[in-house]
Amino acid sequence: MVVRPELTHVQLLDAREVAALLSISVPTLWRCVKDERVPQPVRFGPRLVRWRLRDLERFVGVERPRGASPRQAVERAAERR
User: Fold this and answer.
1) DSSP secondary structure string, 5-71?
2) At a CB cut-off of 8 Å and minimum separation 6, what does 58 contact?
3) Which of 9, 30, 53, 59 is the most buried (most CB within 10 A)?
């Protein structure tokens, strides 16, 4: 098996971890995915879905003003659409 070096450092999070990171519930996370208000997950199969940590960090870092919570970042991103 050949391991590509660029893939060895990718951290993947499941829906519960992403929801906790953004301070939202899992059902709210899935609504945000449907409405394209958060980064789209990587789908490995119909039941195996993960998010790249770097995508979420970029999303929260870019969208979140100083002092705002991750939840507020999601709400503000939704208002802009």
Assistant:
1) GGGTT--EE-HHHHHHHHTS-HHHHHHHHHTT-SPPPEESSSS-EEEEHHHHHHHHHHH--TT--HH
2) 39
3) 59
- CATH assignment at residue 35: 1.10.1660
How many domains does the chain contain in total? 1
| All residues at 6 or more sequence positions from 46 whose CB lies less than 8 Å from its CB, including other chains | none
* Rg of the chain (C-alpha set): 14
Encode pLDDT of 27-81 as tens digits. 999 999 999 999 999 999 999 999 998 899 888 875 555 666 666 666 666 565 5
Is residue 5 included in any domain, yes or no?
Answer: no
- On whether the pTM is more than 0.85, the answer is no
